[in-house]
């Protein structure tokens, strides 16, 4: 095989791996909403590494057990019982080897007596790592888009593939 052909094959393999990584990361991120709305606590927790962090305005969750407990909590079960949807928008993903950063918006829509309303719109910055089990979140930082400087700064950092 010529060196030119070898180089072309290696370039194609690299591009294919990049696309497969992005697809797996997108699958992970967009799985969060349906899983959390289903109350699938083990599946939600499994999106993170064992020591993965979910840092939300309302709560700081420092590992899989804390994430699982949040999904199993009375408050979260109440959201499900009353009707809610966690919609995670398309993610912009920057993968670099075994590490990645992704950014996306999310909406929490809740059912009220007046119909469905958006409870919050949030900036989500994900840090991810390839593990033997596949891609997993190591840190998800979420900040409500309520005019504070921190929220658009998260979006900008993620769009540039940077960590906050």
What are its keywords?
elongated, seven-stranded mixed β-sheet
Provide an overview of this structure.
- The structure is a single chain.
- Helices cover 42% and strands 39% of the residues.
- With 164 residues, the chain is α+β, with helices and mostly antiparallel strands.
- The protein starts with a helix and ends in a 5-residue tail after the last helix.
Summarize the structure.
With 164 residues, the protein is of the alpha+beta class. The protein has five helices and seven strands. Strand 5 and strand 6 form a beta hairpin.
Helix % is 40-55%
> From N to C, what is the helix and strand string?
HHEEHHEEEEEH
- The fraction of residues in strands falls at 35-45%
* Secondary-structure class: alpha+beta
Mean model confidence by pLDDT: 96
Oligomer: single chain
Distance between the termini: 45 Å
Radius of gyration: 18 Å
How does the overall form come out from the CA principal axes?
Answer: elongated
Largest β-sheet summary: 7 strands, mixed
- H/I helix tally: 5
**Overall number of strands:** 7
Low-pLDDT segments, ≥5 res: none
Secondary structure topology:
Elements: H1 3-38, H2 41-45, E1 48-56, E2 59-61, H3 64-72, H4 74-82, E3 84-88, E4 92-96, E5 99-112, E6 115-131, E7 134-144, H5 150-159
Parallel strand pairs: 1-7
Antiparallel strand pairs: 1-2, 3-5, 4-5, 5-6, 6-7
